[in-house]
Structure formats: C-alpha cells, structure tokens
Amino acid sequence: MQLDKYRAFLEDYVCFLEKTADSENEKYAAMISYDTKQLSRAVSNQQVTNMHLTKMEEQRKQEQREAGLEDLTFSQILEKLEGKEKEEFSGLFRRFERAVYDIKYFNGKSMDFAQEGLQILGREGEVPAAPYDSSGKHQEGSQGSPFFVTTV
Q1: Which pTM value belongs to this model?
Q2: What is the 8-class DSSP label of residue 143?
Q3: Max Cα–Cα distance, the chain, nearest Å
Q4: Which of 21, 23, 39, 140 is least buried, going by the fewest C-beta atoms within 10 A?
Q5: Does residue 75 surpass a pLDDT of 50?
Q6: How far apart (Å, rounded) are the C-alpha atoms in residues 93 and 73?
Q7: What secondary structure letter does DSSP report for 38?
C-alpha cells in the first residue's frame, strides 16, 4: 500500500532530520568553544546535509503524491486517517516538527554568535552573501567562485 511506503519514507526522513538537528547542536558547541577543527568539520558536513535535505524534500513530495496526499499539510493528512495509522503518523509528524524546530533553533544560535563576533571585530557590515543557495546553485551577486558553474 502507498501509505505504508510513505510512512516508511517519513521514518527515514525524520531520522535524517533528527541527526541534522544533532549536527546543528554540535556546530553551535564548536563555535562557542572556538574549536576550529570541529567547526570546519561541521561546516563541511552541513554542505552535504543541505544537498541531501533538498533531495529528501523532493522525495517527500513524490511519496506524498503517490499516497494520494498531494499538497496536504500534516494536519490535513491526520484528518483523513483513523486509528493506528493516525497514531503512527501523528507521532512521526510531531518528531518531524520537533527536529525542524531544533535545526532552526541551533542554526539561529550559531548565526547570532557569529554576528556578535563580527560586531566585536567591527566587521558586521562586511558579511558577504552565501555563494550557494540550499539547492547548491550559485547565487548571483555573491562573492566566491562559482566552482560548480565554471566551464573548464
């Protein structure tokens, strides 16, 4: 059944998001402890994670469409379910939302810490735009060489 396939995918997706939240926490801990080796590793992992997240989100949309739940929110999906299925999906959706909250929370703390550091150095206005967006595409007007766009 397509709903079982969707639930199995969501379980994998939620585990990925929970690991991502843990990574964001570790990145923040590396920042506040000034552990450059750990921070460098965390930033490298984050780039890979961002690309994987984009793929996972596209697959979620596909799995949801195949399950006949296209363009529905989690709340709307729960309204269509009953009994054990509703309980299982409710738990998955809570975990999903919690992981996303944690990711945003720790990322925000990291950004605040970095901004404070730049203010202390008197360089807060010199922050360049990120060279790549979340899908890995080079953003126009950003600094840094568009390595993946360059013709060799």
Answers
A1: 0.75
A2: S
A3: 59
A4: 140
A5: yes
A6: 10
A7: H
